Amino acid sequence: MSARPSSRVSWWLLVPGVAWLVVFFVAPLVQLFTVSLQSDYPGYPGYYYRDLAWHNYLDAVQAYPAQVARSFGFAAAATILCLLLAFPVAYTMVFKAGRWRGLLMVLVVAPFFTSFVLRTVAWRQILADDAPLARMLSQLHLLPGGHLTDTGFAVVMGLTYNFLPFMLLPLYASLERVDPALVAAGSDLYATPWQTFRMVTVPLAMPGVVAGILLTFIPAAGDYVNADLLGSDRGTSMVGNAIDAQFFRVLGGYPMAAALSVVLMVFILVMVLAYVRRYGTEELM
């Protein structure tokens, strides 16, 4: 008899969270999907009627093929760079840092206390034409275009810096679970340090690698701040910039912007489902 009231209380405790998700997540998604299928009134820009205009998705992809490809290309490049930078740092923090591990963790998390926009603007100053980096590259004749800003390189650097912690923290959590006895067993079996790293450490860290790739690639693909502040309108714009322009700057652009948003979400959902199917959900965080 006592189990029933307790069960009822548990269900009632779920109501606020479920209501929050329905109002602020499910309902906006449904509205976004319905807007993506609307049609324009002929001769009345900015006015729509409810329809099943599935061609909006094809029109959206055909109108912005470069932005779609660029978004995934920039996100993939930034994700690879984040992995190459984060793995040695996470490995050092877990196996080599000792009492300095806490300080290194603070240095990793500290950038989150600064605004995302301010950090991106700071990179524009670092890559400016009169900054030391650009001047040095110009003197070495390694800067053919004459500048670093307004280029794909600047956008990828901004994405890499801003999303590096999303790669590093899952890697750190995964490597921290590695049993040191397994690493020591590699030496006992006459494996070189590189062989031990490649055949023991890396396989055990793969859940963190996959989680870090997802947590880095997904927000990087939908980002538009870095492309807006570090890139140019013509050569480096991403899907997020196209969505922003259609929503706020193009009269009658709501259906196309919503269709682009749905396409991006579907692609991300496919990635997440592929991850869950392969690794489950326990190692995501």
From TrEMBL:
Keyword Phosphoprotein among record annotations: no
InterPro entries: MetI-like, MetI-like_sf
Membrane topology recorded in Swiss-Prot or TrEMBL: Multi-pass membrane protein
PROSITE patterns in the cross-refs: ABC_TM1
Residues covered by the ABC transmembrane type-1 domain: 68-275
UniProt entry keywords in alphabetical sequence: Cell membrane, Membrane, Transmembrane, Transmembrane helix, Transport
Transmembrane segments: 12-33, 72-91, 103-122, 152-175, 196-218, 256-276
Superkingdom assignment: Bacteria
Cited Pfam families: BPD_transp_1
Annotated compartments: Cell membrane
This protein's record includes keyword Cell membrane: yes
Family: Belongs to the binding-protein-dependent transport system permease family. CysTW subfamily.
Protein name: ABC transporter permease
